[in-house]
Amino acid sequence: MSETNNNDILKELIGLGESSSKKSYYPKLQEKIEELEEERRKFWEIFEYSPIGIIQMDFNHSIIMLNQSFIKILNIDLDADVIELYKNDFWSLFESKEIENSFFETLQKNGEVKDFETVIVLKLDKNLEKRVEILINSKLSEARKECFELYIQDITQTKKLKNQLLQSQKLESIGTLSAGIAHDFNNILSVIRGNIDFAGGVKNDNNELVSIINEIDVATQKAQDIVAQLLSFSRKNSVEKTAIYINSIIKESIKLLRASIPKNIDIVQDLDLNEEAILANPTQIHQIIINLVTNASHAMEKKGGKITIKTQIVYFSSLDSKKYIDLKEGCYLKLSIIDTGHGIPPSIKDKIFDPYFTTKEVGKGTGMGLSVVLGIVKNHLGAIDLYTEEGKGSEFKIYFPLIKERPKEYIKKNNSIIGGNEKILLVDDEESLLKIEKKILQKLGYTVFDFSNPINALEYFKQHVLKIDLVISDLTMPKMSGEELSVEISKLSETPIIICTGFSNQTDSSNIKNIKKYIEKPLTIEVLAFSIRDILSKYAK
């Protein structure tokens, strides 16, 4: 093609042909330049403000261009010398040479890399490093084959949330499992507890036998605590709280723990005599003490030491409460559990409250104790703090808000148990539990009509509705649940009903007027006797 022809074509393309005037050329060129400038501006806006880090690099590892998000992800100082250092040493940010090799092998083989997940180590200063988990997508540059682009996302927080979700799913599976087994397990404990209570009321001069019964009682209490700890994972509804003094619970817990803690460990109680009440669930406070003291003893079981349990009243000002985001200004009960053990290494200090994180050997526990403690404290609107020093020990500090309400008097054992002469319909599908419950009720003076089949119990009630003063029924039974039985009884009379449950997070008596109380298993003679008298005194025929 001749030069003349080339010029004609060029003129025609830019609008300077014979059919076009010179006047029309410059506006069109200016318009095209403005369009290109607008496209360039849009590109740079997208490039600079994209939440994804973008970098173009050649195969000599020299950075051609990079955006602000990439700089933020890598935490690069905007100083030019520092950026230059990262340019020349980009792949040193990665944990190993294998990461770089794997990346380039995939890139050169496929022309692109998709969802390449890895970790980079950022050296923020001489003594501090930060690990950033990243997701890389990359491809060879279409315009320049000697270059490639990296698209990097910081997924550190996403991974953390994902791990939290996985932990939550694990806890949910524990909840499902524990809810499934708790009913049966608490039935077994109720049989043991019932027989202990029954045997305890029989006079016996055999000191060895009395000692054996007491050991069974302690073991049963420990088993009950284990079930309560498992169920704390699975409860969706809030547990019942009441005004309590914590000192008495501490003393009871220490009595229970003393037998299982090595003799070379001293337990010292430094309890504030000016005791104030907190709103709490006694069983869960008991769990906190058991877990923390047990953990402390494990830290000292080889060399021995001292565990101090301390209570005191403290005041948080508005400035103090900023340290604990869960606390408001006001007065708090501070519970401290201090040990002289080996302390907790800084590398794991932030992980100890995570479920399933444990440093315990097999047979030393589940590793879920501290996550249980944290959950209970938060459920009680409190806060927990840890001070630890390697080789010197640890101190767990727990804060509970004080209340003005005074605790009700605790039910005293044995000598305050009151019975009666009313007639009770007793329903439970567990034959062994039904048998011991009947014995206890008869011992208290009641006339008992017992049934293991709720349908048969309902038929009996229909025929003798006027002579039944109270119905005590298990919640979970085949053929007819305790609540279904209660609905049918409600159609016939206003006879009050007590429901006994090994575990359920679906108990709702709001629509069943006859249900006056739920009692959790394992049952004790004190709780059973008190509940019966309480209900009958309010709803007697």
Helix/strand structural class:
alpha/beta
* The top level CATH class name of the largest domain: Alpha Beta
The averaged pLDDT comes out at 76
Order the strands across the largest sheet as they lie in space. Answer: 2-1-5-4-3
Secondary structure: helix percent? 40-55%
Strand percentage lies at 15-25%
Radius of gyration: 36 Å
Unreliable sequence segments? 1-7, 9-23, 360-367, 410-415
Largest sheet: 5 strands, antiparallel
Number of domains: 3
The gross shape turns out to be: elongated
CATH architecture of the largest domain: 2-Layer Sandwich
Number of helices: 15
Query: Gap between N and C termini, in Å?
Result: 117 Å
Quaternary class: single chain
| Counted beta strands | 17
Look at the structure and name the CATH superfamily of the largest domain.
Histidine kinase-like ATPase, C-terminal domain
Structure commentary:
- The protein is α/β, with parallel strands linked by helices.
- It folds into 3 domains: 24-154, Beta-Lactamase (2-Layer Sandwich), CATH 3.30.450; 246-406, Heat Shock Protein 90 (2-Layer Sandwich); 423-539, Response regulator (Rossmann fold).
- It contains 15 helices and 17 strands.
- It has a 5-stranded antiparallel β-sheet. Strands 7-9-10-12-11 form a 5-stranded mixed β-sheet.
- Helix 6 packs antiparallel against helix 7, helix 8 (246-258) crosses helix 9 (282-298) and helix 13 packs parallel to helix 14.
- The protein is elongated, with a radius of gyration of 36 Å.
- The protein starts with a helix and ends with a helix.
- The relative contact order is 0.07.
